[in-house]
Every structure is written in C-alpha cells, then in structure tokens.
Write a structure and sequence with these properties.
The chain is of the alpha+beta class. It contains ten helices and ten strands. The strands form three sheets. The protein has a five-stranded antiparallel sheet with strand order 3-2-4-1-7. A hairpin with a 2-residue loop joins strand 9 and strand 10. Helix 2 packs antiparallel against helix 7 and helix 8 runs parallel beside helix 10. The longest helix has 30 residues. It is globular and about 55 Å long.
C-alpha cells in the first residue's frame, strides 16, 4: 500500500537530453521537477510569464503552459553577409539573468510569443543571423573591410545591444572567423533560391530550418497568420513600453513625436487584437484560398516591421541626443509600414494600386 502512494506521489519525468548543448528550451509539463542549472517559465494565455528556479516543481494553473530552459553558454557561427559565406562571426552567448527592473524578461517574452516545441540552437542562430544581416544591409550596423579597432568596438556594442533587446541574450565573445572550408556554396545558393518563395522568412532561417537538398515546404497561410498575429498581440505592448521609457532631451518636439508614435502603436495593437478570421470574408462566408494567402503574407509583413521596431529600440538605447531625431524619423517609417500591413490584412480583396 505504501509503495502505491509513493508511485502516485512521484513527479512526472522530464527529458532534459540536450538542454544546455544543442537545445536551449523545451516545453515542460505540470508537476515536473526542474533539473539542476535550468530555469522554468510559466506562460498564461495572455502571454504573461513567471519564472521558477532550478530544483523547484513546475506548478501550472489552468491555461498556463510550461517551459524549461538552460541559460547556457552557447556558441554558433554566423554569416554577417549572405553574399560572402566565407566570412563568419563565431559568437558565444548566454540567456541573460533576470533584470529586476523589468516586469517581464525579454527571453521569456520570446518563448511566449515565438516558442513552438523545443527551441534548438540552430533555429535561434538563424533568427540571430537574419536580424544581424538586416541591420548590416540597412546600414544600422557597420562592419567594413579591414575594420579598425574603433569600428569593431562600435559594431560589437551595437550587436550586443541588438541581441539583448531582441532576444534577451548576453554576448560573451564574438570573433571573426574564416568559414570558407566549412561552407557548401551550392547548398547555400539552393537555400537562397528557396527563400525567395517566402521572403519574410529570411534566407538564413530557410537554410537552417529545412534540409538543404529538400524541396521547400508548402506555405501554410493559417499557421503563418496565427503565429504572426500572436507575436503582434504579445509584443506590440512591450514595444510601446520600451518606447515610452526612452530617455529624451529637454524640449517638446521629440516628446510630441514620441506621443504620436505611441498613439499610433496603440491603435496598431488594437487592430492586431481585433483582426478578422483569416478564412472568412464575412460571417458565414468563406474566403478564397488565394486571398487567405494574401492576408497571411501581410501578417508576415507586419512582423517584419515588428522586428525592425525591436532593432530600432536597441539603437535608441545607445543613441546620443543629436541622433534621436533621425531615429524617430525611422520609427515613423516603421510604424507606417506596420499600419499599412495591418490595414491590408483586414481587407477581403486586395486594394487597387494607382
């Protein structure tokens, strides 16, 4: 009889294989005990999170999902320039420790809004690589040939802030490496060609998310739309909070611009939260498949603007007073793209262009 009670009280098993090596985070069921050196995260339906320390039992209330992650450190090789696959950066990073000033840790928000199944190192490296390539392509980060020490330090500061603001990661080390002997150029070209079918996925994500020799998976509008809208619903309020806390110099001009941007972001968040169903043109009227695909692609365009907004917040953290006006002008462009994408997502038929 006592053995029966012991078996009933035994916590469910959790498979921690690979955590801290090639897996950063994995979903965890209620009642599981957190392995040593790991952290638990409970996520409710509204995206609010709370952490559980290592060794504790993950107790979930109704509607919560559980995660277990290992803070690292981890290492990966990144391609800063897609056109030069022999030039690489060897990066070592860790998940940042909790910041008591924040109501929600950035990595916890990343799990809540973008987590699907276990988070593997290759998948996260692809997202980091896409964010880095976008910033370099837009000129927001600079990594010129024959980089001087001052140029390298400026790049490192911007890259470190980007990873912290976008993913909640702390960069321990970053050094240039020659990847020419380890790169399959033909496979990289095939992956880049496959990525053109879905430009908002990103070439790096397409290359790492599927086998190089395999044909690209068919676009799933329902899944892509649901993931994009969840990101917008959970992350736009956090973007607004970060923008509201931005340090501004004395004066009214930038303050008014900041308030106008916050009002527009508030309306964008409301639009994302009240978006019509993807498959319906009207109540009881199904929407044609090609129009569902069009709507889903506009949702992806909105998340592309969201990614740019996070990168802009990283630059705001380091900006001098004389550079804020240019950054706020850039924010105006990003919010305009976001508004347009959300407006197009609501339409039943595409807008006629002049």
């Amino acid at each position: 009889m006592f053995e029966l009670f012991k078996r009933m009280a035994r916590p469910p098993a959790f498979d921690a294989t690979g955590l801290g090596q090639d897996v950063l985070a994995r979903p965890m069921g209620a009642g599981c005990v957190l392995p040593p050196s790991t952290v638990g995260v409970a996520v409710d339906r509204a995206g609010h999170t709370r952490r559980i320390s290592a060794g504790g039992r993950l107790v979930l209330i109704e509607g919560e999902a559980g995660w277990c992650f290992h803070p690292g450190p981890y290492g990966c090789d990144l391609l800063p320039f897609a056109q030069a696959p022999e030039i690489g950066l060897r990066v070592h990073f860790a998940i940042d420790s909790p910041d008591p000033r924040l109501a929600q840790q950035r990595f916890d928000l990343f799990l809540a809004s973008e987590g699907e199944g276990e988070l593997r190192l290759g998948e996260l490296a692809a997202r980091i690589e896409d964010a880095l390539q976008r910033e370099l392509a837009q000129g927001n980060l600079e990594l010129p040939p024959c980089t001087t020490l001052d140029e390298w330090n400026a790049f490192r500061a911007g890259f470190n802030q980007l990873l912290y603001t976008r993913f909640g990661l702390t960069v321990d080390d970053c050094v240039p490496v020659d990847l020419g002997s380890s790169r399959d150029y033909a496979a990289a070209l095939r992956a880049r060609a496959a990525a053109t079918d879905e430009p908002y996925l990103g070439a790096a994500a397409a290359a790492r998310a599927q086998p190089q020799a395999a044909a690209p998976a068919a676009f799933d509008p329902a899944g892509a739309d649901a993931r994009a809208l969840r990101r917008l619903f959970l992350e736009l309020p956090c973007v607004m909070c970060r923008l509201r806390l931005a340090a501004l110099p004395s004066g009214q001009a930038l303050f008014r611009q900041q308030q106008a941007l916050l009002q527009r972001l508030d309306l964008a968040a409301l639009a994302a939260a009240s978006m019509p169903a993807l498959a319906l043109a009207a109540p009881g009227q199904p929407l044609a498949v090609e129009q569902q695909v069009r709507r889903a692609r506009h949702s992806l365009r909105a998340t592309a603007a969201l990614d740019e907004a996070w990168a802009l917040l990283a630059r705001l953290e380091r900006a001098e007073d004389d550079g804020l006006e240019r950054l706020f002008d850039e924010a105006d462009r990003i919010v305009a793209n976001l508004e347009r994408a959300l407006e197009e997502r609501k339409l039943v038929t595409p807008r006629e262009e002049p």
